[in-house]
Design brief:
alpha+beta; eight-stranded antiparallel β-sheet; six-stranded antiparallel β-sheet; extended
Length: about 1500
């Protein structure tokens, strides 16, 4: 190692020498152009200035000689000064390096002045010569034009042009070489013959020979020797013909040039055509974008925020089906709502990103924009609703304490829900059910055994869905039957027969559907008249009803609220609202909670408290009285097929409510009913009406549409993608023009909910930090407090405590309650109800203010004590010596408080002393100790604590160097923890930052070069004879990687690492060459090079258990004295401490992912309506003081296959304008129900022990409005167990709770324990639920079959089969459970006899079940036989049976089977399936066969 580093140092000097040699030819090359330019004959530019050039050349030579001399001296001086030769090593001083220097600027500075003058003169001369050539060419062209005027062109020469391919070459040759001279010669010869009049052959004299004359002419006019004296008109045309003919000769220069010209011309024309097409396309697209801009809701200035358009483009580019991520221009999304785009800017901005799109892609983009425009309306509407709820919170928070009582809030929601009409309750969510109440508030029997479908979050959800599915099946059956019937008579007979055979209820439904075929005009006219009559009639009735004594007026006030809700619910103002409320998502269902009463059956203390809150409110009446009053009013004015009952008196309500309702209420519900009925109408003919349904019953059926019906509905839901219509059709249709108002309200242009932190949320620690900055007593701590605030963990999350709501949580709760389909007027009514109903007593206000003061005081104390601890721990070791703390504390007030301070030690349990009898306190232990000391002193605790902090701060003496070193080290330690939090569940960044902190500190504060490696303890499975555990090197610095990485250290080998493991304290070897027990991984290292120091530090977890060793050495440092000084050792201890925390942080996230994968696998095997499940983790932002981000860790598809990402994608808040439900969930740490792109989502937070969200599980349930109650309950069970596992994992990580090993398989290892933790907690829950059962529950099962034979005689066959199936279910489940406890029953003769087997069901059976460990070694059962009994029954079959004992035992048996099968598999089968370095992602899936099936 050392030799390679030593030989590499002289290389830079050699390279400098080579560079000098390479520079010399460059100098000679510069001189050559000057010499050549001076020797050119006929150069007038240089002849006139020859003397000047000679003078310049002499100056250049002298300057070059001078520069060469300077360079030689500088090189010698550098060689002398840059190296210092010592006896054993060479030290090279660092050269001066200039960073960020422009190379062009550097070259310009080094360029000599003579070169500039030379090139200027040369350029001027070249330009002058070029101008002469141009002038000469222009002159020749002018002369040629004059000659053409004097000699006209003879077109007879054009006859020579013939493009025949056979003679093309010869003809071109003759025309080019011979004929231009021969034709004038023949012409001259003929002129001579004519002159001499030698026309007859006899007249030819011997003196004139035409051949000789022609030959003489050709010789005299040879073009190679005689310049062109001029051309005749015939020759000029012949020249043009020759040039044209040459073009057609292949493989010639003119031919190639012509082809090139033609190609260039075609390409130019093609480019011009494409350019024109692009211009037309761009113009058309801009027109389309201009039309599309009008679909958006604009601010008062007619602009739209740029971030909204950027989000639209971002979502489109990120669509995996389009694959546009790589070819599109990157988007730099802004961070605020400030930048705006008007119409022109919008068109230009979008066009710049879609200029290269094809027409199909652009059409998809337009559809996406149209869809996002509708989505943006919903975003604005949601923002308006959240603003209403935020103002309500501020109004109810009379004491401005920042929180409201949770139980009172839920009690008011329950009262509002009970007082609402059935129609409105179908849209609202039941506040007595999860997610409004927590899992801990639900009793175990109700949570695990309650199978009452009426307790769904929506009223009659399962019932209405089954009815709609039955109607659909009959509709399809009638369609098929009608196609099979040939003649109209058969069709008529079939319709009469179906009418007579249909049940009464279905006939009524069918008749109702048939009546809905009346024309729209008749419906609107008739119903509006009926509505007006009933409105007036009901107004009179209401006025007569509400006149009376004062108590009656008080009770009628509640009824007025209910009727206002009726009226507001019908006040949909736009067609979009009609579609949203009538054509709902697939499988929407409703439920009724009227039978439950006002009490929540799952809560005991909190439920009673909430009921007491209801009774204390002065302006309310009991639910029973409200119901009786509603019944009396209903008797006075029945519904009569209209909504008149829901229209209250105009004189009772404010004018604003009247206007908003009367304008939109009349006829809107009827249009909704018509649309929905048209979508669900049956194709029966001539069916007479049998039964009239009320408006609420009709609405109840129409509100829920199943998936099969949804496919046939032409009108999409408000969040579905737009239909396949062109832009022109949309423009022509006036009904598609969208209003700039939402329910009559204009948009202000701001999304206030995007800036909750700035407008509403206050951060207590930041406020206290600002107060401390202004306190001059703690000036020395100001810089440390700033660092603490900047290095703080993820900010902006609210902690859920189960007692109170802050603003974010309150707003989110109300938004979950009202849902997304309810108009804003309902939210306003709810706000009015809350303002009147939320009343706090004086004592509660005082208590809230006191709690706020205590919270502020606690935060202030934590900041002061943490800053004091960091100032005291200037080396960053992470602990302080208790003895040193006491010595300083006892000097407070000159020792007068010493005895009182000693009493504080009686109330605290200090950690175990170190081997050197030193008691070390961490930061939390130090804070707790100081707080106990303060509590023993007299006076106000806040003043006393600040006085002690001020005293200790002034007493501590730290130099400026120590403060700077402390600041730098704190930054490096923070980077290690930050790397763990932003690693995406990977240890590689943690290792990198750890070694970076070690090397930077060694260079900055130790002036040495170090190497380091980290080794972790592993169980020795290969060679147990060499020790039970080994130390494996899992990470090291780069130089030692070939020798150290992945090597194993056994106990029988040399080394001090195992001594560190056994003793638990650091060991420092100042000189390894003299120690004798140091193991060198590099065996090629010479003994003379084994010189340096070695430091081994233990790695400990929260329970002070050692899990590895971190080693640091200076073997690569060539200094003689390179030992570690005390402050370096203490800092390295701090690095080991922070690394341990970061290491366990990453592993805790791995364990949580493992638990989530197990839970998702369990859930996917028993549910079928969940489309996808996405798991997110929260991470700090990439920059300090930036908002947190989300990591998409894994996605589970419909088949239960989980895709785990190697590099999880990051999701920023600014890219989630349309999908902000993720950050709503993490901000409030509450469950969020949301819908986007026509799909519904259930977002459930994973919470830390503090109540803050650490992640989110996004359950995509597709088009369904909600899951069936069975699946909804299974989802709750899964989440309760996963959350309990998270609490346990995080509590063990921090040391707050001790590890609890329940099953034997948990002792195998931490990773294997995380793999079965989900099943273990679920097993504990089931065992606790079984303990609450009574003997009567089991006796009823044993006697179940005795009552069957007598009754089954009169029952139909279907009922008899159902009873037989239930008997088999009970017997199989009980026998399977008995075989777990009594496996010997299989071999006995009593096994096949049920009368004998049921005798095993006794009081001891439950005790054995609750104490049963399926992973114990002594447990041996026949899993195959038990599986035949248990797995032969589906989850739905058990649910329909509806017995709590069977439900418990069914789940218990499946969990036991799963644990037993995992116990038999190797330990690698339950390892977390995280990706390796080479994988982009991996896939994981729970093994089949060990979980209950879906059907």
């Amino acid at each position: 190692m050392s030799e390679s580093a030593f030989q590499e140092e002289p290389k830079p000097a050699q390279e400098n020498g080579k560079e000098d040699k390479e520079n010399k030819p460059e100098e000679t090359e510069v001189k050559e152009p000057t010499k050549s330019s001076q020797g050119v004959p006929g150069s007038s530019a240089l002849d006139t200035s020859s003397n000047v050039a000679e003078i310049e050349a002499d100056e250049i030579k002298s300057q070059e000689i001078h520069l060469e001399g300077q360079s030689e001296t500088s090189v010698c001086s550098i060689k002398d000064s840059s190296t210092r030769v010592s006896k054993n090593f060479v030290v090279r001083k660092p050269a001066k390096v200039i960073f960020n220097l422009d190379p062009t600027a550097l070259n310009s500075k080094l360029e000599q002045p003579w070169k500039k003058n030379f090139f200027e003169r040369l350029e001027a001369r070249a330009q002058k010569m070029q101008q002469k050539i141009i002038d000469k060419d222009n002159l020749n062209k002018e002369l040629e034009k004059k000659a053409e005027k004097n000699l006209p062109r003879d077109n007879l020469a054009k006859e020579w042009f013939n493009a025949e391919s056979m003679t093309l070459d010869s003809r071109a040759y003759l025309l080019d070489k011979l004929l231009p001279t021969l034709v004038p010669g023949v012409e001259k010869m003929l002129m001579q013959v004519e002159k001499k009049k030698l026309w007859v052959e006899g007249d030819i004299t011997t003196k004139f020979n035409p051949n000789n004359h022609l030959g003489e002419y050709l010789m005299r006019n040879n073009p190679y020797y005689i310049k062109d004296s001029g051309m005749s008109g015939y020759q000029r045309v012949m020249r043009d013909v020759t040039e044209d003919l040459k073009i057609h000769v292949p493989n010639t220069v003119p031919n190639r040039v012509t082809k090139m010209k033609e190609s260039i011309k075609q390409k130019r024309e093609q480019r011009q055509f494409i350019k024109e097409v692009k211009v037309r396309v761009t113009k058309t697209r801009k027109q389309a974008l201009q039309e599309q801009f009008s679909e958006w809701i604009l601010d008062p200035k007619g602009t739209i925020p740029m971030i909204v358009i950027q989000n639209v483009l971002h979502e489109f580019f990120q669509n995996p089906d389009l694959q546009l991520e790589t070819c599109c221009k990157p988007l730099d999304i802004v961070d605020s709502m400030g930048p705006r785009l008007n119409k022109t800017e919008f068109i230009e901005y979008v066009s710049s990103y879609v200029a290269d799109f094809k027409n199909e892609m652009f059409e998809k983009l337009l559809k996406h924009f149209c869809h996002c425009a509708d989505e943006f309306r919903e975003v604005i509407k949601t923002d308006m609703r959240r603003q209403i709820f935020a103002e309500l919170f501020l109004h109810c928070d009379h004491g401005k304490v920042g929180f409201l009582d949770r139980q009172r809030t839920l009690a008011l929601l329950e009262t509002f829900y009970d007082q609402s009409s059935k129609m409105l309750r179908s849209l609202l969510r039941n506040p007595r059910q999860w997610p409004f109440i927590e899992f801990e508030e639900i009793d175990l029997p109700e949570f695990w055994g309650d199978m009452d479908n009426q307790k769904h979050i929506y009223e009659d959800f399962d019932k209405v869905l089954l009815e709609m599915n039955a109607l659909l099946s009959e509709k399809y059956a009638s369609k098929i039957q009608s196609k099979l019937l040939e003649t109209p008579e058969d069709q008529h007979n079939h319709d009469e027969h179906s009418e007579s055979t249909l049940p009464e209820q279905q006939r009524g439904t069918t008749a109702e559907q048939e009546r809905n075929r009346i024309s729209t005009k008749e419906q609107e006219q008739g119903r509006e008249l009926t509505g007006e009559k009933e409105l007036d009639k009901d107004s009179v009735t209401e006025q007569e009803t509400h006149t009376g004594s004062t108590p009656e007026q008080g009770s009628s006030r509640e009824l007025i609220i209910e009727q206002r809700l009726h009226r507001v619910n019908m006040g949909a103002t736009t067609e979009q609202e009609l579609h949203r409320e009538s054509i709902a998502a697939q499988g929407q269902h409703k439920r009724s909670d009227t039978e439950q009463g006002p009490h929540r059956g799952s809560t005991s203390e909190q439920g009673s408290r909430r009921q007491s809150v209801i009774e204390q409110e002065p302006h309310k009446v009991s639910v029973a009285e409200q119901r009786s009053h509603r019944e009396s009013v209903t008797e006075q004015g029945p519904l009569k097929g209209s909504t008149a009952e829901q229209e209250p008196s105009r004189e009772i309500f404010p004018e604003r409510q009247q206007d908003s309702t009367l304008q939109s209420g009349r006829g809107s519900i009827f249009r909704e009913s018509k649309i929905s009925r048209d979508a669900t109408s049956f194709e029966y003919t001539e069916i007479s009406p049998q039964k009239e349904r009320t408006q609420e019953q009709t609405y109840e059926k129409e509100l829920f549409v199943s998936s099969e019906l949804q496919e046939e509905v032409s009108t999409s839901r408000r969040k579905d993608h737009p239909s396949e219509t062109t832009k022109k059709e949309i423009q022509k249709d006036p009904s598609c023009e969208k209003s700039q108002k939402i329910e009559g309200k204009s948009w202000s242009g701001e999304l206030l909910t995007c800036n909750w932190k700035m407008n509403y949320i206050k951060c207590e620690d930041e406020e206290q930090a600002n107060l401390l900055y202004s306190d001059n007593r703690f000036t020395d701590l100001h810089s440390i407090i700033r660092n603490i605030q900047s290095y703080k963990e993820v900010k902006g999350r609210s902690a859920f405590n189960g007692v109170s709501f802050n603003l974010l949580q309150f707003v989110q709760l109300l938004e979950t309650f009202v849902g997304e389909d309810v108009p804003l007027s309902v939210s306003e009514t709810l706000t009015t109800f809350f303002k009147r109903g939320y009343v706090e007593t004086k004592e509660e206000k005082i208590s809230g203010l006191e709690e706020t003061r205590q919270n502020a005081s606690r935060v202030r104390q934590e900041l002061l004590l943490e800053a004091l601890f960091q100032k005291w721990d200037s080396d960053g070791s992470g602990f302080l010596d208790l003895k040193e703390i006491d010595e300083l504390l006892y000097t407070y007030k000159e020792g007068m408080e010493k005895e009182s301070m000693k009493k504080a030690k009686l109330h605290i349990q200090f950690p175990k002393p170190q081997p050197d009898q030193e008691v070390r306190l961490s930061s939390k232990q130090f804070q707790k100790y100081i707080e106990l000391v303060v509590s023993e002193l007299r006076g106000n605790e806040d003043h006393v604590l600040e006085s002690i902090v001020e005293f200790l701060m002034n007493t501590l003496e730290r130099s400026h160097t120590e403060n700077l070193r402390n600041c730098a080290r704190r930054k490096w330690l923070y980077q290690i923890q930050h790397a763990a939090e932003t690693s995406g569940v990977s240890l590689e960044p943690v290792y990198t930052e750890t070694f970076k902190a070690l090397t930077q500190d060694a260079e900055a504060h130790g002036n040495k070069k170090i190497c380091a490696h980290i080794s972790l303890l592993e169980e020795n499975l290969l060679l147990p004879d060499r020790g039970e555990v080994v130390l494996r090197n899992v990470a090291c610095t780069l130089d030692d990687a070939p020798f150290v990485l992945n090597k194993v250290l056994y106990r029988d080998m040399k080394g001090i690492s195992f001594t560190v493991v056994d003793e638990g304290k650091p060991i420092h070897v100042p000189q390894v060459q003299h120690h004798g027990n140091v193991f060198f991984w590099n065996h090629s290292l010479k003994k003379s090079d084994q010189n340096g120091s070695f430091l081994a530090l233990p790695l400990q977890d929260a329970y002070m258990r050692i899990f590895g060793v971190m080693a640091v050495d200076t073997l690569r440092d060539k200094k003689k004295i390179n030992i570690f000084v005390p402050h370096e050792i203490r800092f390295y201890q701090g690095v080991a401490n922070v690394f341990s925390t970061a290491y366990h942080y990453v592993h805790s996230r791995e364990h949580i992912l493992h638990v989530v994968i197990t839970g998702i696998g369990w859930l996917c095997d028993i549910t079928s309506d969940i489309t996808a499940i996405t798991t997110y983790f929260i991470e700090p932002g990439l920059m300090q003081d930036s908002d947190y981000v989300l990591r998409n860790m894994m996605v589970t598809r419909h088949l239960g296959l989980t895709e785990i990402h190697r590099n999880p994608p990051i999701i920023f808040r600014k890219t989630c304008i349309f999908r902000d439900f993720l950050f709503k969930c993490t901000d409030s740490s509450e469950v969020v129900l949301a819908s986007v792109c026509g799909e519904n989502h259930i977002l459930i937070p994973l919470r830390e022990r503090t109540g803050k969200a650490l992640g989110v599980l996004d359950f995509n349930i597709g088009k369904s409005k909600m899951l069936l109650y069975r699946e909804f309950k299974d989802l709750q069970k899964m989440m309760k167990v996963v959350q309990a596992a998270c609490y346990e994992i995080l509590g063990e990580l921090s040391g707050e709770i001790k590890k609890n090993y329940i099953l034997e398989i948990e002792n195998v290892g931490e990773v294997q324990r995380a793999g079965i933790l989900f099943f273990r907690i679920m097993l504990q829950e089931l065992q606790e639920s079984l303990r609450l059962l009574t003997s009567i529950d089991f006796v009823s099962l044993l006697l179940y079959d005795y009552h069957i034979p007598a009754e089954s005689i009169s029952l139909p066959d279907s009922k008899t089969q159902e009873l037989e199936a239930n008997i088999k279910l009970v017997q199989d489940i009980l026998i399977g459970v008995i075989l777990f406890i009594h496996p010997e029953l299989e071999l006995s003769s009593e096994f096949g006899n049920w009368e004998k087997c049921k005798l095993y069901v006794s009081r001891y059976l439950v005790e054995n079940i609750c104490d049963f460990d399926p992973t114990a070694k002594h447990v041996e059962v026949n899993l195959q036989l038990i599986g035949e009994y248990i797995r032969g029954h589906s989850r739905i079959e058990v649910w329909k049976f509806g017995n709590i004992v069977i439900e418990y035992l069914y789940h218990w048996a499946h969990i036991c089977l799963a644990l037993m099968e995992l116990n038999k598999k190797p330990s690698s089968a339950i390892l977390p399936p995280l990706p390796s370095k080479t994988d982009s992602c991996v896939y994981a899936k729970m093994p089949k066969g060990n979980l209950p099936g879906k059907c």
